[in-house]
Write a structure and sequence with these properties.
alpha+beta
Length: 346
């Protein structure tokens, strides 16, 4: 039968003299190696960055960090799978100088260096800024959910937490207090406001009540003044109303119950300025989608980061602190190419 046949497995052959010959000059693994070598791991807080002079020699944290970044970049985040890659993956052999740490050493590194891994994640952003790769003029903000590394007996509790998180997300994206803080910090924030219906559709809407900032009151469709009655600190709201709604000719369409009140957020002015910017440039939300939603999508779909591998908040932060530089390196390599990245890291 005429098929392409491989070489005899028992045939002796002369392989390349150097392991470096197996790694192409434009292989992304070279960028991972060069990037981690630029980090001051001791200053970032990595354990054993400066080993003791006595006792058993530890693995260099730089080698273990390279292993993790490579693994997350190529959808291999399990410590046991990374251990296997060290014995069969030529690129990993090159990256780790043929070292073969066991799975517990690999897992302990991630667990013991959670804070340092977050610092290393921030260091890559600073590298991009120094190289002029980030403009920093426009920033998109978004959130995403990943499955937790939880025990089965915690599943019911997690479901309750998820329902609570969804309730928070409904109004967490548009927060007047946060908008005001951004303005106080010289940042221009544009966030679409989620309006929550307060009256039935067949009643006069709140939009027809005009706010008078000078007199701190509202003017209703009938021309009457609604003054401030009280406030709700837990919701950051002022409540306005008046006496005499019972005799108003618009009562059937405005206040069938006898009295109409309207509310105004403590930072309503910041909301209004944000909405004005959005009306002036409707493309801002499309730009936000391109800036921030794509990384979450690629992290989950292309890089397989759908579930945290470590338990607890600290472990989840360590997981994310490795996944984010992996995505960032992948994005910068795609944009600049390996040669330009290596030149920037040199």
């Amino acid at each position: 039968m005429r098929h392409i046949e491989g070489a005899d497995r028992m045939q002796e052959s002369l392989l390349p003299e150097s392991l470096d010959d197996y790694v192409a000059a434009d292989d992304p693994v070279r960028v991972i190696d060069a990037y981690v070598d630029t980090l001051d791991l001791h200053a970032l807080g990595f354990d054993k960055a400066q080993p003791e002079q006595t006792g058993r020699k530890p693995y260099n944290p730089a080698d273990l960090l390279k292993l993790y970044v490579y693994g997350y970049l190529y959808r291999v985040s399990s410590s046991r799978r990374l251990e296997r890659e060290c014995a069969r993956n030529t690129e990993v052999m090159w990256l780790l100088w043929r070292l073969r740490p066991d799975f517990k050493t690999i897992a302990d590194f991630r667990r013991d260096n959670a804070v340092a891994l977050r610092a290393a994640c921030a260091a890559f952003v600073q590298f991009c800024r120094r190289g002029g790769l980030l403009g920093g003029k426009r920033v998109g903000v978004d959130g995403s959910r990943s499955k937790a590394a939880a025990l089965e007996r915690l599943k019911r509790r997690d479901e309750r937490l998820e329902r609570f998180e969804q309730a928070m997300d409904a109004e967490g994206y548009a927060n007047g207090e946060h908008l005001q803080r951004c303005e106080d910090s010289a940042m221009t924030a544009t966030v679409p406001r989620r309006e929550i219906p307060g009256v039935p559709a067949d009643r006069i809407p709140k939009a027809q009540f005009r706010h008078d900032a000078e007199r701190d009151c509202f003017v209703c469709p009938a021309g009457e003044l609604l003054t401030r009655l009280r406030k709700h600190d837990d919701r950051n709201l002022h409540v306005y109303g008046r006496e005499g709604c019972e005799t108003c000719p618009l009562r059937p369409l405005c206040a069938p119950s006898g009295r109409r009140t309207v509310t105004r957020h403590y930072h309503e002015a910041a909301y209004e300025r944000s909405q004005a910017r959005l009306r002036a440039d409707p493309t801002l939300m499309r730009q936000r989608m391109a800036i921030v939603e794509r990384p979450f999508a690629l992290n989950k779909q292309a890089m397989g980061f759908r579930r945290f591998g470590c338990r607890g908040l600290r472990g989840a932060q360590a997981d994310m602190a490795i996944a984010v530089p992996g995505y960032n390196l992948k994005a910068m390599i795609a944009r600049l190419g390996v040669k330009r990245m290596l030149a920037a890291l040199a």
